[in-house]
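Posting here for the record, re: tryptophan.
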Amino acid sequence: MLGDQKVVFSGVQPSGNLTIGNYLGAIKNFAAFSEEYRCFYCVVDMHAITVRQVPAELRRRTYETLALYMACGLDPEKNTLFVQSHVPAHAELAWMLNCYTMFGELSRMTQFKDKSAKHADNINAGLFTYPTLMAADILLYQTDLVPVGIDQKQHLELARNIANRFNQAYSPTFVVPEPYIAQSGMKIMSLTEPTAKMSKSDPNPNAVVYILDEKDTILRKFRRAVTDSGSEVKYEEGKDGICNLISIYRCLTGKSIEEVEREFTGKGYGDFKNACGEVCADTLAPVREEFARLNADKAYLESVMKKGAEDASRAAARTLTKVKKKLGFVV
Ligand code: TRP
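Prediction output follows.
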């Protein structure tokens, strides 16, 4: 809570190539939160440098990510949109929270284990303490609700533990945040391997539909989607390919499973895949156009970042001062 308003916070990696999984499972629903909550969405460039980045690309993707979120419906008048490194309180609180996070806890994080396997030549301390910075992001704003993908649930659990530990060692300081894991969309699977999650870093480009893909590309990817033996559009246990396509179609159209099945009775997989491609391309076309418009206007994006950083800094300063006082710093 900030004042009398409940708070939503989420962090997004500065990578421009978000997938329809990100869109349907998360971003599309973010705009609705601002009716009820004070919302902060942060482009986490400091998290990004835990793996090696090409500087010019990081900079470009930071703008792109902001533009993409706005194109997906996040209005900067109704949400605080900002860049993590513009608000130094994140780094400050992260240091303090590092001293309230156990080595053992961080060692158990599956993302750390995965990433250190993947970047075995660069297992740096930042990669290890990544979850503490994430906890700082969240706790700085007295966040009630954190919309994240299921893969971030463990990090959120750690943030809760850190908050509770600090609150118990001193006195209530942080709101203990709850995860918000969207039901729909979280199950959007790869188009080529429907038992694995659709991941933006999948090396097979046919597995993933990106929000910014062109219509032709989208149609082609759906046409090539792996489906199961049989030919009926029916949601059945074990038919992972067709179930995934039905889920995607449902998310895009708002229809129920029964409605989708009825719509495609007597039609084959081919027709259904085309329909999926069409509705997906139509849904994303306005997002892509708005993205292009916003991304071309760097001055405007910078003004959004600047205002966002000012608003965020103001909110963050309250928590940071409180924490410093409790720790015994001279403030
Ligand atoms: N770790 C998150 C991810 O990779 C990004 C993130 C950073 C985040 N800080 C956050 C998400 C705070 C939610 C809240 O997706």
